[in-house]
Amino acid sequence: MAKRSWINPITIVVVVLLAAAIYLFGFPPKEVVEQGEQQAVPVKVQQAEVSEFRDTIEALGTAMANETVEITAQTQDVVDKIYFDSGDLVKEGQLLAELNARKEVARVQQIKFSLDEAKRQLDRIGELRRGNAASQQQLDEQQVKVNGLQADLEVAEATLREMKIYAPFSGRVGIRQVSPGSLVGPGDVFTTLDDIKPIKIDFSVPERFFASIAVGQEVMARSRAYPGELFSGRITSIDARIDPVTRAVRVRAKITNDDERLRPGMLLQITLLRSIDEAMLLPEKALVPIQNRQYVYVLTPDNRARQKEVTIGRRKPGIVEVTDGLKPGEKVIIEGIVRLRDGIPVSVQGE
Hints:
The chain has helices at residues 9-26, 30-37, 102-130, 136-161, and strands at 41-47, 50-72, 77-82, 89-90, 95-99, 164-166, 171-173, 183-184, 189-206, 218-223, 231-242, 248-255, 267-283, 288-290, 293-299, 305-316, 319-324, 331-335, 346-348. It is α+β, with helices and mostly antiparallel strands.
């Protein structure tokens, strides 16, 4: 007896109904699943409000001495005496060092003796001339001799002065680089001299900010050597040209440095205040960029996240200005944004 096939219309209907039941009861619609499993996302909020916005320009500057010079010899000779030590404060005109000047002193004395004798001869010839006992030519020749010796004396005295080295201005000397007995020549450096009260700072400002800077404008400087401290100064000069390569203008400021904590060569972070405005500010992390638009999530009265498009303006590190799209008093979600969608329930933390 042939076996009866199990595939028949009744079997097919039963299988279809069974599959439909498994789909409906085992895999409910997505909306039902989401509503049943949706949980409140923990978030933190910040109230949107208008506050002070300080628009600043940031730059890096290098500290320089107000006046600086290398103390050098003007002639070749042996160092006789040194009257300073490394790091000393010196006054303008203070004697710093002397070179061996015995030859120069002797030369000056010799010329002085010759000049005195020549003047006596000039006086004697003058008396003889008045008595017609000497000619005018003799008188003129002696006068020329006196004038020549006078010039020689001035040269010798100038050379003698070069054997002494003086401070051209008040300041602090650097490390001493010569010792008594050293043979030095023109250009050999004894030490450096810096006037650092006040101290100059040179920095560059981009061309787009050129209209925002002016002589007398206040600047604030920070140094890594003094964390958390601010040094106040003012712009003293602005370069007449803008660099065609960097498109920036060089600016110089001066900072009072009576305590001498700032030294030439220091790298300083410069802050220039452009303006102080009232603006609505938010943490930059509250923004949700989508293509070329910016959005934020605001908290609704029923504790849900609602997405809103906003228009942003100026930025500062970690802060952004919102120019449109928010009203003062709205609560903006600033943390927990990654898990948010429009309309999802949230749980506010930290309130």
